[in-house]
Amino acid sequence: MRVDETSIPGTWQISPDPLGDTRGRFFEAAKESVLTAVTGMPFTVRQVNNSVSHRGVLRGLHCNDVPADAGKLVTCVRGSVLDVMVDLRVGSPTFGSHRTTRLSADEGTALYMPGGIGHAFLALEDGTCVNYLLSAEYVPGAMIDVDALDPELDLPWELDGPAVRSAKDAAAPSLAEALASGRLPRFTPPRTRPGAPGAPERKAPARAR
């Protein structure tokens, strides 16, 4: 696999290197030793979630404020999504900026992010299933919601009609309101950068989609 830091500090794209034969394909989707060495964020899976969505369903924007070191690895295992990460960490050099990635079951690309990154996606096919590997168990009341359709964020959703959202997501505050509430997480610089002692050599960055 290949692990590349994205334009948002501390977030990573994992691109598998499939091996194919007459039976189909095989690839490593994640490896703890590689993720820890490259990202500096030790990753132990403590909860696994799956969501199944119809085409046009928009889930998010969500992030966690506790625990502070919570990590999330997101993969689309059926169908495809337009995935968006938004930096909601107060004090981050890229606060409020976003990064879009198309995730599909065919490609197996994954995204790895700390808890302070807002995450949302738009399902592009019926029956789309997204898998989340979480380094911390869910804590009731710890989730922070921000309106994924907030004009200030101006996220590039490819909507061809009204988004299908939960009542909770539709009622989420704007970025300005969330910032004023004082609940948004603080930015902590990543502890390890690629090229540091013990970190694997990185390949050329993958292109953003």
Radius of gyration from the alpha-carbon trace, in angstroms: 17 Å
What is the fold named in CATH at topology level of one domain? Jelly Rolls
Proportion in β-strands: 25-35%
Class inferred from helices and paired strands: mainly beta
Helices, by number, come to 3
User: Quick one: overall form?
Assistant: globular
Major β-sheet strand ordering: 1-2-10-7-12-5
**Quantity of strands, as a count:** 13
How is the main sheet built? Answer: 6 strands, antiparallel
Model description:
By secondary structure, the chain is mainly β. It has a domain of 137 residues: Sandwich (Jelly Rolls), CATH 2.60.120. Helix content is 9%, strand content 35%. The chain has three helices and 13 strands, in the order E-E-E-E-H-E-E-E-E-E-E-E-E-E-H-H. A hairpin with a 2-residue loop joins strand 3 and strand 4. The longest helix is centred in the N-terminal third of the chain and has 8 residues. It is globular. The two termini are 18 Å apart. The relative contact order is 0.25.
Write the layout of secondary structure elements.
Blueprint: E1 2-5, E2 12-15, E3 19-21, E4 24-26, H1 32-39, E5 47-53, E6 58-64, E7 71-78, E8 80-87, E9 98-104, E10 110-114, E11 117-123, E12 128-134, E13 143-145, H2 167-170, H3 175-181
Key attributes of the depicted protein:
about 210 residues, mainly beta, Jelly Rolls, six-stranded antiparallel beta sheet, five-stranded antiparallel beta sheet, 13 strands, disordered C terminus
